[in-house]
């Protein structure tokens, strides 16, 4: 089975999923940054489709940019939150959650 990439954004300041947050995905290789997709989170703080489907998911370095400044209307000091990570096992599901407020964030490899 091929893997895929997903995310989930939770607004810890308001205690709810981050609905309407713009998310961009890039692949990094050879000093280049290739834009793959732009999505917006739904009412559950997830995207309606995977960030990257199995047929496009491969080994390498990726970056998800979460546009939290837009989401919080410019409040706080965070603008964009970039999360870079390596995929070494493309047959696995990679899930990158973000817990965010206008002033801080946490991320990890979820399941």
What's the short version?
The chain is mainly beta and 111 residues long.
Question: How is this structure best described in words?
Answer:
This protein is mainly β. It has a single domain, classed as Transthyretin/hydroxyisourate hydrolase domain (Immunoglobulin-like), CATH 2.60.40. It is 4% helix and 49% strand. The protein has 1 helix and 8 strands. A 4-stranded mixed β-sheet has the order 2-1-7-8, with no helix packed on it. It has a 4-stranded antiparallel β-sheet with strand order 4-3-5-6. A hairpin with a 2-residue loop joins strand 3 (22-29) and strand 4 (32-40). It is globular and about 35 Å long. The model has no long low-confidence stretch (mean pLDDT 96).
């Amino acid at each position: 089975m091929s893997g895929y990439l997903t995310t989930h954004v939770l607004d810890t300041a308001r205690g709810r999923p981050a609905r309407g947050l713009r998310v961009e995905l890039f692949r990094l290789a050879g000093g280049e940054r290739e834009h793959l997709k732009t999505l917006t989170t739904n009412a559950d703080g997830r995207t309606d489709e995977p960030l990257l489907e199995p047929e496009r998911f491969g080994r390498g370095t990726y970056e998800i940019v979460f546009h939290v400044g837009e989401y919080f209307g410019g409040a706080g000091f965070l603008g964009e939150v970039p999360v870079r990570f390596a995929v070494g096992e493309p047959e696995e599901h990679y899930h990158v959650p973000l817990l965010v407020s206008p002033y801080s964030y946490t991320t990890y490899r979820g399941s």
